[in-house]
């Protein structure tokens, strides 16, 4: 048997997929936590930076009590110059949204209305957000209100370089991915090794099962273990013992059946030979009666007596040769003449039981080359059965006709016919509708074998006369195959 779906492969696939899904979920959770931690760290640094910047601004504005634009611009310039590697821009807004100082002096005195500026002016606490600019790249902006007592002086906005934050996020992501990939690979290796160990034991058990020899009845030796595989091995060993015992019992039963079959075959052969001899003997008795009643046709009766004795001699000869069912002597003969001879053999019984024969013979049938005695024996068997089925006054119909390369012979009667439950097995040996002691049940069985050795066939159909009708078809020219 070819394995199409390995347990090892399925376990690796199922467990690997499950672990991969779990690790993926953990990855997203850990990355979300790490992202928040990294952003929180940089946010704290940015807020500390802006708070450090607005302290001197608040002090200067509070002490002077005036808006010193020159002071603000100088402070912004100095601040951006000191932190030029970190600061992308710095903006000081008054409470109306007008730019009082800007790292880009061309923006001074302009009015800003963007959402971040408005939020900075309205906020009471430092604000933070991260965005990507087309020119500056990643920027994290932090804002804080100006004024020690009130928000009357506006707000400060600082744009800081966010690339270090992005780089840290990317490094952390790569490290986490590498760790999870390593964990997944380790789990897969462990699962593969464990499943390989399990399936290896199962393959050992399967190979041991393949090597069992019922002819020598040698028990197998399987490894013992305290797991499910050990339980499987134990159950298989017990099954093996039962199979060996069953085989021994079966062999004894087969020997007994062979002896019984030999005895049954011997009984069938003896019964068949007795049946084949009995029918010609009945014909011989009829001929003797006819010879006594009608001595004027003595030559014809003597010819029929000789044919009957020849059939008995052929049957005994076949028995002695150990080939009872040989096809017989093939020669040229007239089918219609054989039908008349069979009726003549039965003439005394037909007249005694007042059975009428209705004959339709096709004169276009040419002489055929086949087993003459075999055909007459088959016809005699069927006609005898018809007489037994009629049991008194009745009719037997015989009809011959040419059908291509075949000759068809139909024998029907006005008897009771064959019961439905016997139609499918009427040609089997020892099947009969007669009373015990009045029939062997071999007539139709022998008849079918004779017709088949002649290269023909026989079947059953209902008869217009009310009883059974048997239809025989034999080839016009048949030669027994040799070799």
Mean pLDDT: 79
The CATH class label of the largest domain is Alpha Beta
Looking at how many chains there are and whether they match, the oligomeric state comes to single chain
- Let me know the largest β-sheet: 5 strands, antiparallel
Structural class: alpha+beta
User: In which order are the strands of the major sheet placed?
Assistant: 2-1-5-4-3
List the secondary-structure elements in sequence, H or E.
HHEEHEEEHHHEHHEEHEEHEE
Number of helices: 10
CATH architectural arrangement of the largest domain: 2-Layer Sandwich
The rough form would be described as: rod-shaped
Please count the beta strands (DSSP E, at least 2 residues each). 12
Give the uncertain stretches in residue-range form: 321-327
* CATH topology grouping of the largest domain: Heat Shock Protein 90
At the fourth level of CATH, the homologous superfamily of the largest domain is Histidine kinase-like ATPase, C-terminal domain
Strand content: 15-25%
- What is the count of structural domains? 2
Q: C-alpha Rg, in Å?
A: 57 Å
- From the N-terminal CA to the C-terminal CA, the straight-line distance is 41 Å
Give the % helix: 40-55%
Provide a short characterization of the protein structure:
This protein is α+β, with helices and mostly antiparallel strands and 483 residues long. It contains ten helices and twelve strands. Helix content is 55%, strand content 17%.
Topology record:
Elements: H1 7-64, H2 69-82, E1 87-93, E2 99-102, H3 115-122, E3 127-133, E4 137-145, E5 155-161, H4 163-210, H5 228-293, H6 298-321, E6 330-333, H7 335-345, H8 347-352, E7 355-360, E8 368-371, H9 372-390, E9 394-403, E10 406-413, H10 443-453, E11 457-462, E12 468-475
